[in-house]
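Page 37, top half.
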Amino acid sequence: MEQIVSEALINSVMAKEAFVKKSQQSLVDLACQMVMTIRQGGKILLFGNGGSAADAQHMAAELVSRFLINRRPMAAIALTTDTSIITAIANDYSFDEIFSKQMQALGKPEDLALGISTSGASVNVIKAIEVAKEIGMRTAVLTGGLAGDGGELGQVSDLTLNVPAAKTQHIQEVHLWIEHLLCELVEKEIFGEN
């Protein structure tokens, strides 16, 4: 068990280091896009499946409530939380449409769509990014995988932050770290250090 713990720690740190080496500027670019969105009166729409759904909700909570600073709320909505909407769309149309239908209903050109998919292959996340682009929204995605391109999702988004790791758990660990960094960067840029 001790060996498993040691290897997991090493692999997690290596995944973070690989991401920063490859994508630090993309991280800063996304933070700037988020700042611009909030300053222009837009909102951030977040979505993903499974653990990525939990990440979307976690990040929306940090933006709306607070992260490190007591300040006014920032507009963010996780499209993963309304079970009535999700199950109605899945039942009446398809699970592939659960985020794109919400994007059509809630998305405005001044908003930013932030999709999260460990594989970069989640059809419902891809469709939502495509709809967001049709609306004229800024789009960004968090993905993973050694190929480095973010899969099909990375091809349709304006900005892709791909974690170059093979194991899902390490990709997800880095995603949470990225999400916390984004919250900190955005909060400090808009509200300062206090």
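Page 37, bottom half:
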Amino acid sequence: MQANAVYDDVVTDVLDELRLRLDAALEAGIPPGCLVVDPGLGFAKTPDHNGELLGRLGDVMALGHPVLVGASRKSFLGSLLVDRTTGQPRPARLRDAATTAVSVLAAAQGVRCLRVHDVASTADAIRVTARWGVEAAASAGSPLG
């Protein structure tokens, strides 16, 4: 699949493909409220591609449908967490903290659909972060508070 990780601009190319798939689903009669878009982290993408997509989730959300981020234990997280002794990427079973970090950042950008392995820890992290964000906004005089 990595041989297919060739893009002019990964975000633009993924958005173009998602638009085509959304149009096809709508033309097939699927109600718009039943559609969720997934930028496909880890599928025919390099770690840099995944980072670009995560950094521009707002562009994906601008398609007008809920967005699913499925970063849980993906290899691109392992490549960020290389063992200093062996030089090997962190094994999948030890990537839950990195998954939680990505999930919290995605949720903070407005993503509400997440695929994770450690549901309880991810939910706790999102709740704590959301609460802190609301309190920080209120103390700054923001209308969000």
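Margin note: The CA atoms of residues 1 and 44 lie 5 Å apart.
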